[in-house]
């Protein structure tokens, strides 16, 4: 091993994701909104407040954060046994009129990374090497480079390593990029769910519904029985979608939720 003061100048350091995107000349545009998922027990208070507020984070200790995912309602939680309607997910689909000042952006769920819910071939790297909040256009670039377009991203159909290698001429210094490609393409264990391939953004300030375009809300059908509540919701949300409630575990509902979010996109003309 060479001493620190004798490092040859010709040895290149590993390429960081943000630098790889900077040199990719990839399109930065995406039509996808941002998605926030929470437990339905919070719905009434959120709508009464008229905003999504940051809450204490158990990953970034000492910070209050609001988490969003690009396009997909990827955040998942579970409960024991049959779930009551207030234990089920509610999804807010948000389109900012002006891109906010994000605290951090990662190409995967940072909490899943931190808790080793992602495979060790990527978690052996420092998580901060994958931050891409230096440029708001990097969200679209990740989608266009690794998935080609919004539809393929939503369906988690990434480009293969061989396909990307023909364009980018991978070298050993691309090791972190190749780890991300492998992560996006693999479904190797139940723990490595859709959070592994969904872009995450963090905000340290509230998202006021009056100031932003709330494209839609997806909620359990029970909340739609309150006509006065739904009437108020429709004043700030362009579309309200509900899903049926059955005597099932929370995990059984995520397929329905994905479908309802995609229907909002199609109704808004964001997907073909």
Keywords:
272 residues; alpha+beta; 28% helix; elongated
**How many β-strand runs?**
10
Category by helix and strand content: alpha+beta
Helix content: 25-40%
| C-alpha-based Rg, rounded | 20 Å
Which strand-content bin applies to the residues?
A: 15-25%
**What is the approximate shape?**
elongated
Largest sheet: 8 strands, mixed
Q: Which stretches are low in confidence, meaning pLDDT under 50 for 5 or more residues running?
A: none
Structure description:
The radius of gyration is 20 Å and the shape is elongated. Helix content is 28%, strand content 18%. It is built from ten helices and ten strands. The protein is an alpha+beta fold. β3 (55-56) and β4 (64-70) form a beta hairpin. The strands form two sheets. Strands 1, 3, 4, 5, 6, 7, 9 and 10 form an eight-stranded mixed beta sheet that branches. Strands 2-8 form a two-stranded antiparallel sheet. The longest helix is centred in the last third of the chain and has 14 residues, at 254-267.
List the helices and strands and how they pair.
Elements: H1 17-22, E1 34-39, H2 43-49, E2 51-52, E3 55-56, E4 64-70, E5 89-95, E6 104-106, H3 110-114, H4 120-123, H5 138-146, H6 150-154, H7 161-168, H8 175-185, E7 200-203, E8 207-208, E9 213-220, H9 227-233, E10 237-243, H10 254-267
Parallel strand pairs: 9-10
Antiparallel strand pairs: 1-4, 1-5, 2-8, 3-4, 4-7, 5-9, 6-7
